[in-house]
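User: quick one
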Amino acid sequence: MSTILKVDDLTKDYPVRGSDRVVHAVKGVSFELKRGETLGIVGESGCGKSTTARMLVRLEEATGGRILLGDQDITAASRRELRDVRRRIQMVFQDPYASLNPRQPVGRMLDEVLKVHRLAEGAQGRQERVRELLSMVGLPATYASRYPHEMSGGQRQRIGIARALAVEPEILILDEPVSALDVSVQAEVMNLLTGLRDRLGLSYVFISHDLGMVRHISDRIAVMYLGRIVEWGPWQTVSDEPLHPYTQALQAAVPIADPDAEAHREVAPLRGEIPDPANPPLGCDFSPRCPLVQPVCRETEPELLELLPRHLAACHVAAGRRTERVSS
Amino acid sequence: MSQVNEPVLSVRDLRTVIHTATGDAEVVKGVSFDVARGETLALVGESGCGKSTTVLSVMDLHPRPTVEITGGQVVFEGVDLVKATEQQRRSVRGAGMAMVYQDPMTSLNPLMRVGDQIGEVVLAHGGSAEEARRRVGEVLEQVGIADPGRAARAYPHEFSGGMRQRVVIAMALAMRPRLLIADEPTTALDVTIQQQIIALVRQLQADNGMAVIWITHDLGVVARVADRIAIMYSGHIVEEGPSRRVFSRPEHPYTDGLIASIPRPTGSERPPLRLIPGSPPDPSHVFAGCPFVPRCPQAVDLCSEQLPPITERGSSSARCWVPPEKWTAPRSGGVSQQVAQ
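Assistant: Done. Structure below.
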């Protein structure tokens, strides 16, 4: 599979108002997305996953690093070039209600997208394409005349997806696309997303706090903590046999909808909270909460290393264990 | 775990109506359940199902006159609060039972020191200033706040989301309630912090035998906290029973659908998720028969004509005309089977 998007040492700093301090929201994130692949990014609040997503579509300017779409650097694209970038890479937001114009029937909204990007021939061509887009996301053509408030949350998210698909993109950045939906509605949007990916050959960056959903849809999973990727690898090993103690804690914290399984999972909760990003700890960001912490962790930031084939983790302890295994 | 004894709270045929400009909407349609000492009942449902209105009615905190209890009983420790005097109700509210909300800032005054707010609860129930001061220290320590003295002097904004939720729980504990009602208390929190709050509530229960009603839409949280489960849909409890039983042998197609719609937590197979077509109905919608009919894969003609009664099935009960052995559409077969597949 060829690489379609390559993120290289991406950083984002925010100045702290009223002081000369800086919050490092994203601290050197690198990853690649292959054609047809779904990369899941999972993490808790403040880990930098949404900031990363927004930088990928230039809703947020990167402080440093590069985002390569083919051989074009998105971070350096001019306004005109950005239009082409946005034809190839689109974003779907968590709250479809906030991202849709309440005064416009959804058909007209889609029509405008097509007009701006000159994507269909004439009014009739656009009308046909609108119908096609609605059908792709499982809505009848009659929905074109509906306003966002006349729709359910799941239907609105379908419209959000249709709008992203209108420009025939190669990549969708999905930022918590099902988190605001009712449980029984999440499943249908998840199924729609997997179906569209397979049918249209799309590549996804799927961002969520919900490890269960990320596990369900991803080919590879990246785990973020305080602005860094701390673990990255194939979906099943990252989610079921994680190497990093934070991923292990995250996995243990996610309740399983099975009382019998839960009864056998008496795990002590992770202590403490995510540190203040404006005042991060020395060494490893996770060291103040880590049950496996060693003296070195409080001094040196661990590197993201390939500890198993295609499975990377940034942890002194996990790296040490691998060395032991190799030498014994 | 649950013990067999007198329920702390016994709700019978509770009906609550919202008066709106366009007419009345009954959003709690004859709800009955019990909660025993030391037990956790999970009240589960999606948006608009009436779960929050149910507990606000129980707590006598429903906004009057817009929302009105029109029938039924709320029996707390032997006293029917629907018929009780305002004074009786006030002595139960906050002392006998206390409530924790999803957003801690709903219950915290941003302009007041945390210690003063907790102390106020004690004072309002006739405690002395000395008692209030002592109790503030005790409850802040109980909820695992490291330096209770310093925390008491701080304002809510000085705490993180997770710590604020601990403060709110401390405030709820001030009068040693026998029943804690927690309305989505961890939904706004990160999952590692959620785990801490769940562990805290369970510890408190183990220490003092407090009963808990835990409202949530998250079946994972339910599996972790609940002894018993009540599933709500469109103002009705559609299924009720012991947690293990409900998860392993759901008796209502809605419960079955909810369980099947969750991604599998383990294994290398990731089949498409089973889904419940459509979305939850508007709370004001009036159905002739069962409200789940438009989304139900197992429905028969009778279902759209008449509301099914509650039927006992072993240790569970369900409001459904069609027993599982007569279901024609595929079913989840319960969570353990789903995991094992």
